[in-house]
């Protein structure tokens, strides 16, 4: 598996300045959460660093690129091109950087979530949503929730995300609803 | 198949007064929509009359009742007992009243919706949501939307329903999201 120091400059070169600032925010937050929940620091850093590795592939190339590297897309992903970057990124992390399956899944599900997520998956999902440069979800009470009760924070962010997609009349990935229902303890 | 006149008193006896007032509102609205979209009036009336036939089976009996008559429930239906009445009602309409498959499906999907609904399914779904005794969705602009562009009205009600479930922290049935994505032309 690739080392964090070796991947750092590669990711910095691939991503725009704005995206890399976001990525650094995710790394910082993921380290905080990882320490609380006892996850391996190097693993957490590597996944956080590379979670958006495929985010800036031009939209018109995404579907073809996914096809080229053997990533299957579902109906929603074919029309909501935003979602593709997670699956494509996961494939790159597996093939090029030698990530373990758990690390690959943390990249793969960082946008939609899914039911019964591993601790690493939850840490990356929440770090992405709550990093300091985010407008709403970086608020102190959300970060504190993530530190105290990670499943409750998952529910909060999933609910917030679905509400946001609805407001914008955007399609909603089934995995996000499955995750929302799973973390909904009502 | 049972005749409307014969079923009318049976449904009136089964349902509470409040529920039967709702049912009469659904029949009225379904006839309006059915005329516009060229559906058979007797069929529309029969389905509207019986759509909530299983709604007042006591909650604690619903799961067992479903099992007894051979209705399979998914994970969400097992915890959200509200949803069970549509599947159970559909089975009663098939076995006891001799409804056709299309009529059975209009009862079955009147709560969640699904993708690619038949005209009859959409008429019952929308009549249920927009009958005159409903608080919000009976507003004139929603009824007019249903009369002018039935797929647009489907999207409006599905979106409104998901928002409502979210607000109440309730679980969301996957069929509702599949329907929302399907009727979302964005």
Task: Write structural notes for this entry.
By secondary structure, the first copy, chain A, is mostly helical. Chain A has one domain: Hypothetical protein af1432, CATH 1.10.3210.10. The first copy, chain A, has eleven helices and no strands. Chain A is globular, with a radius of gyration of 15 Å. The model of chain A has no long low-confidence stretch (mean pLDDT 94). Chains A and B meet through helix 10 and helix 11 of A and helix 10 and helix 11 of B.
Structural class of chain A: mainly alpha
What is the CATH homology-level superfamily of chain A?
Hypothetical protein af1432
**Portion in strands of chain A:** under 5%
- Terminal CA distance of chain A reads 41 Å
Computed Rg of chain A: 15 Å
Largest sheet of chain A: none
Helix-strand pattern of chain A = HHHHHHHHHHH
Integer tally of domains of chain A: 1
CATH class of chain A: Mainly Alpha
How many strands of chain A?
0
Largest interface comes to: A-B, 17 and 17 residues
CATH architecture of chain A: Orthogonal Bundle
